[in-house]
Amino acid sequence: MELDHIGIAVNSLEEAKVFYEALGWKSMPSEVVESEKVKVGFLNLENNCALELLESTSNDGPIAKFIEKRGTGIHHICLRVKNIQETLKQLKEKNIQLLNSEPKLGAHNCLVAFIHPKSTGGVLIELSQPQGDV
Ligand code: CO
Fold it and tell me: Which positions ≥6 away from 65 have C-beta within 8 Å?
């Protein structure tokens, strides 16, 4: 298991990018993830890890609600797994509370599922299994 990315809730992708680009990062083209009602922009680090900037595309989406409650900032961390079905099965057996009991399609064509912060000490954790480039 590896750290895949850290998700950061922002009001505006365009405005948030300015800071990271000032650090010398090249941002990738943004992508809309319909299932999460977000527009995401990834900033790749050199060690195969990334930052994921998340801008809500809807007032009632999870990122809009998060910002309303807690403001902008770190939203989740994402762990890359080899077999997400197997990982979810193991977690269910250990009574870990999941937000998604089945994987769904996330950014970059990955299969993703979230673990409930109640089971992780308050951190929203995303699991992600890459499926190759599309
Ligand atoms: Co993410």
Answer: none
